[in-house]
Amino acid sequence: LVEAVTKPEPPADLKTTADRDKFVAEAVGEALKREVLLMFASIEGPLKVLLVDTAMILAQHDHILNTVRDEVLRVSPTGPLTLDLLDQMRHLHALTMEVRRYFPIFALQYFRTAQDVTIAEYTVPKGWLVLSSIAAVHNDIALWTDPKKFDPARFEGDNSKEISPWTLLPHGGGETSSSHRCSGENVTTVLLKAVMVYLLREYEWTLEEEQVLDLDYTKIIPAPTSGVNVSIKKKEKEETEADD
Fold this sequence. Notes:
Helix content is 43%, strand content 12%.
């Protein structure tokens, strides 16, 4: 993020090196503040949808819910969360990865071609914008085994090693270190995990009946057609203590 901020040219009336360096440092600092605020503002909507999607899909798959809950209560049943604790929850990590595959954050994303590209019999010139359907890529049977099935296990162990960075596109494609990806990707993923840990520790939830939960792809952020109505309750104290 620091490297992405353009350093301004100091005014000519600043003669000393110290004054010029101070001007640049303050300008870069203000620019970084704006970038960080923009990043957090940009993840609010997608994060809310991902949280709803995760709660919804877990309510439909008891065995996955129980597996992840058992892991959470084993690794971090109470108290503050740390990144080290989250890193120990491999089932939770696989869940959040599969949620982002199964429920695309955006219906479309665009790329700019770095060189002339031939797709089938069509040539896309360098510099053109190309629209990509994330849902189409995430449901391509040539790229994913049984893509219509919600299966976090595809991101566990050796299975995850077979997944190309160009086949999972929730925040952009390619390697994180060298490709253009959303700056809020890691923050979104960590917050999604953290909120789910607190929910799985303390709450139970079920879906209300007669809902249309198919995703509406006419929305910028695809969401269930009818919205999601959930009955949620705090776990009984005796149950929580027993799990601890």
